[in-house]
Amino acid sequence: MRQAGAQLIPxxxxxxxxxxxxxxxxxxxxxxxxxxxxPQHQFPTTVxxxxxxxxxxxxxxxQYGFTIIEDDYDHEFHYGTKVPLPLASYAHGGPILYISSLxxxxxxxxxxxxxxxxxxxxxxxxxLRSIIDRQGDNVLEQAVAELMQAxxxxxxxxxxxxxxxxxxxxxxxxxxxxxxxxxTYRVPEGGLAYWIRFNQSRxxxxxxxxxxxxxxxxxxxxxxxxxxxxxxxxxxxxxxxxSPEMEQVLQVLQKTx
Length: 257
Ligand SMILES: Cc1ncc(COP(=O)(O)O)c(C=O)c1O
Description:
By secondary structure, the chain is of the alpha/beta class.
């Protein structure tokens, strides 16, 4: 966003998602062009934006005339019975760019994503895109299209959802078993990670390094902090770990603390 010349204004997120009053207060004092959000599972905290806030956000977009950029990168993996609909599925009269990707559903190496939005935007984006890459990856796109048409991607999504649902539950169980006294977290409604906050203040870059030395790869979450203040948290991704692997990871974390 910065590379594209945007001036960024961070908005706080709490247990119900992006804070609407904060969005409104920014809109009142300055002209906002766009709001980038990950409502289904906020990155990196995994929080799902609650229904009333979704409606309020759409209303604000209409009222103040800003575009919502909805990054819906892992919507396939929601574990509750009611899966919230994307913001883009509501006709609220304002522009929404809806972006998603096959990175989580198939693999990050499959460099295929998609965007929907007003025709003029799509046309302009396609023109820019064609400057960087005239053709895209036709062979890969054709292969994925065939798998979609044959129903294979849908079958895979169902199987993956079941695997991740189990891993999501297991991770909660191991967190309770090994780290209940050390961390606070909400069980995420979906997505592929837990956001755990340490009860005591921790040096996260140092902890990240120590874990990496023991073969546990985690992201230094201070990198997500807009103003540089440490977040005192880790993002524990469970997608690629079997149950014994996750148990081992959380045991290593417990011993390292
Ligand atoms: C917040 C967020 N948006 C989008 C993506 C997907 O990015 P890409 O399609 O470039 O792999 C990711 C992947 O990790 C992500 O974390």
